[in-house]
Design a protein that fits this description.
Helix 4 links the parallel strand 6 and strand 7. The radius of gyration is 19 Å and the shape is globular. Strands 1, 2, 3, 4 and 5 form a five-stranded antiparallel beta sheet that branches. A five-stranded mixed beta sheet has the order 6-7-8-9-10, with helices on one face. The termini are far apart. It has two domains: 81 residues, Sulfite Reductase Hemoprotein,Domain 2 (Sulfite Reductase Hemoprotein, domain 2, Alpha-Beta Complex), CATH 3.90.480; 133 residues, Sulfite Reductase Hemoprotein, domain 1 (2-Layer Sandwich), CATH 3.30.413. Helix content is 32%, strand content 20%. The chain is an alpha+beta fold. Bound molecules: iron/sulfur cluster (SF4). Iron/sulfur cluster binds next to loops.
Length: 230
């Protein structure tokens, strides 16, 4: 039997080391799984997996040890409760979002609201891109989601009476980590979304396959990159 692993990956089912066995990667907006979501994940893990889950660094929950023949049933059960498939491969990954001022006492911006606006602008997890691409949002300069270490990192920032977002571009982790550089301005939510759109469009158009944004910026130079995205 031939299995289209890439198609399954796009549906959130990642190949395991054992043939015919997959890990389901899930995500939910801003990492806020409800009790209903967790009950469904628990049920699915017991019914189709080995009864446990794994928490990812991008605020998702994975269910390992799902058999190939159960994939359609599992997919239906997660969809029924509104759980989304997580992304892997050369795509926009799940955006990690700290609580911001929703409940963290240090938060100065509503991180969940910004994330909702990003999704409403059509910038969605799973978007095909030349390589992995990560966005993170933090509610204050403590930057618990590590704004400096992702392709686009945003954190709440204040300058006098102005409260908005500081934006870092071009960071990444992995084998060849890079620290992103900070743009010289505090951005409103709408301005931040405009930057995200421009950077992703530029990256999609100009990067070679498997070239991360940091390496594209190094190739063309930071000033050329900034001019290109205005
Ligand atoms: S980045 Fe700031 S607002 Fe977000 S969790 Fe950390 S301390 Fe709280």
């Amino acid at each position: 039997m031939s299995i289209d692993y890439d198609a399954l990956k796009k549906r959130g089912f990642l190949r395991s080391k054992e043939d015919g066995v997959f890990t389901l990667r899930t995500r939910i907006a801003s990492g806020n799984y409800t009790g209903e979501h967790l009950e469904a994940i628990s049920r699915i893990a017991k019914k189709y997996g080995k009864g446990f889950t794994h928490l990812t660094v991008r605020q998702g929950i994975e269910i390992p040890f799902i058999r190939y023949e159960d994939i359609d049933a599992v997919e239906k059960e997660i969809k029924d409760v509104g759980i989304l498939p997580g992304a892997s491969g050369p795509r926009l990954r799940a955006t990690t979002v700290c609580p911001g001022n929703n409940w963290c006492k240090r938060g100065i911006v509503n991180t969940f609201a910004l994330f909702e606006k990003i999704e409403n602008a059509g910038i969605l997890c799973g978007l095909d891109l030349p390589h992995k691409f990560k966005i993170v949002i933090s509610g204050c300069p403590n930057t618990c989601t590590r704004a400096q270490s992702s392709e686009i990192g945003l954190h709440g920032a204040a300058d006098g009476k102005t409260i908005g977002y500081a934006v870092y571009l071009g960071g990444c982790g992995g084998r060849f980590p890079r620290i992103g550089f900070k743009l010289d301005k505090i951005f409103t939510e709408d301005e931040a979304i405009d930057v995200i759109k421009k950077v992703i469009t530029f990256y999609k158009t100009h990067a070679k396959p498997r070239q991360r944004l940091a390496l594209l910026i190094e190739q063309i130079g930071k000033e050329s990159f900034l001019n290109a995205i205005q």
